What we know:
Helix content is 46%, strand content 10%.
Amino acid sequence: MTEKQQLQKDRAYFKFVLVGLPKPIQKRSLTPTEIKLWDNIMEARLVLLNSIDETSRQLGLKVPENRCYLCGKEGTEAFENGSLGTIFTCKKHSIE
Ligand SMILES: [Zn+2]
Protein backbone atom coordinates (compact mmCIF):
# COMPACT_ATOMS: atom_id res chain seq x y z
CA MET A 1 0.00 0.00 0.00
CA THR A 2 1.39 3.40 -0.95
CA GLU A 3 1.63 6.26 1.53
CA LYS A 4 -1.28 7.98 -0.18
CA GLN A 5 -3.47 4.87 -0.04
CA GLN A 6 -2.66 4.55 3.66
CA LEU A 7 -3.60 8.18 4.22
CA GLN A 8 -6.86 7.67 2.33
CA LYS A 9 -7.66 4.58 4.38
CA ASP A 10 -6.80 6.20 7.72
CA ARG A 11 -8.86 9.29 6.97
CA ALA A 12 -11.81 7.20 5.79
CA TYR A 13 -11.66 5.29 9.07
CA PHE A 14 -11.45 8.53 11.05
CA LYS A 15 -14.57 9.79 9.27
CA PHE A 16 -16.31 6.48 9.99
CA VAL A 17 -15.50 6.89 13.71
CA LEU A 18 -16.74 10.50 13.66
CA VAL A 19 -20.01 9.58 11.95
CA GLY A 20 -20.66 6.83 14.48
CA LEU A 21 -19.79 8.91 17.53
CA PRO A 22 -23.31 9.89 18.65
CA LYS A 23 -24.77 7.14 20.78
CA PRO A 24 -27.94 7.22 22.86
CA ILE A 25 -26.66 8.63 26.14
CA GLN A 26 -28.66 9.61 29.24
CA LYS A 27 -27.89 13.28 29.75
CA ARG A 28 -29.82 13.25 33.04
CA SER A 29 -26.98 11.20 34.52
CA LEU A 30 -24.41 13.87 33.64
CA THR A 31 -23.40 17.01 35.51
CA PRO A 32 -23.85 20.39 33.78
CA THR A 33 -20.09 20.52 33.19
CA GLU A 34 -20.12 17.08 31.60
CA ILE A 35 -23.07 18.01 29.39
CA LYS A 36 -21.30 21.18 28.29
CA LEU A 37 -18.13 19.25 27.42
CA TRP A 38 -20.12 16.58 25.58
CA ASP A 39 -21.92 19.28 23.59
CA ASN A 40 -18.50 20.73 22.73
CA ILE A 41 -17.44 17.32 21.42
CA MET A 42 -20.56 17.07 19.25
CA GLU A 43 -20.01 20.59 17.95
CA ALA A 44 -16.36 19.87 17.09
CA ARG A 45 -17.54 16.64 15.42
CA LEU A 46 -19.81 18.63 13.09
CA VAL A 47 -17.02 21.05 12.21
CA LEU A 48 -14.77 18.09 11.38
CA LEU A 49 -17.43 16.32 9.32
CA ASN A 50 -18.20 19.48 7.37
CA SER A 51 -14.56 20.05 6.47
CA ILE A 52 -12.98 16.58 6.25
CA ASP A 53 -13.69 15.97 2.55
CA GLU A 54 -12.31 19.36 1.54
CA THR A 55 -9.25 18.84 3.74
CA SER A 56 -8.69 15.42 2.12
CA ARG A 57 -8.75 17.11 -1.30
CA GLN A 58 -6.19 19.65 -0.08
CA LEU A 59 -4.02 16.70 0.99
CA GLY A 60 -4.17 15.47 -2.59
CA LEU A 61 -6.71 12.69 -2.11
CA LYS A 62 -9.54 12.01 -4.50
CA VAL A 63 -12.91 12.54 -2.84
CA PRO A 64 -16.01 12.13 -5.00
CA GLU A 65 -18.31 15.15 -5.02
CA ASN A 66 -21.36 12.86 -5.03
CA ARG A 67 -21.84 9.29 -3.95
CA CYS A 68 -24.10 6.49 -5.12
CA TYR A 69 -26.96 6.24 -2.63
CA LEU A 70 -26.80 2.44 -2.77
CA CYS A 71 -23.11 1.56 -2.57
CA GLY A 72 -21.29 4.80 -1.67
CA LYS A 73 -19.02 4.69 -4.73
CA GLU A 74 -18.61 7.76 -6.91
CA GLY A 75 -22.04 8.91 -8.09
CA THR A 76 -22.00 9.85 -11.75
CA GLU A 77 -25.67 10.07 -12.59
CA ALA A 78 -28.19 12.37 -10.90
CA PHE A 79 -31.89 11.66 -10.52
CA GLU A 80 -34.70 13.71 -9.10
CA ASN A 81 -36.57 11.83 -6.42
CA GLY A 82 -39.53 13.77 -5.04
CA SER A 83 -39.08 13.38 -1.28
CA LEU A 84 -35.33 12.74 -1.31
CA GLY A 85 -34.42 15.54 -3.70
CA THR A 86 -31.47 14.87 -5.99
CA ILE A 87 -29.92 11.45 -5.55
CA PHE A 88 -26.90 9.96 -7.31
CA THR A 89 -26.06 6.51 -8.57
CA CYS A 90 -22.90 4.90 -9.86
CA LYS A 91 -22.89 3.35 -13.34
CA LYS A 92 -23.67 -0.09 -11.91
CA HIS A 93 -26.76 1.10 -10.02
CA SER A 94 -27.98 3.44 -12.74
CA ILE A 95 -31.77 3.76 -12.89
CA GLU A 96 -32.72 3.56 -16.53
ZN1 LIG B 1 -23.70 2.08 -6.69
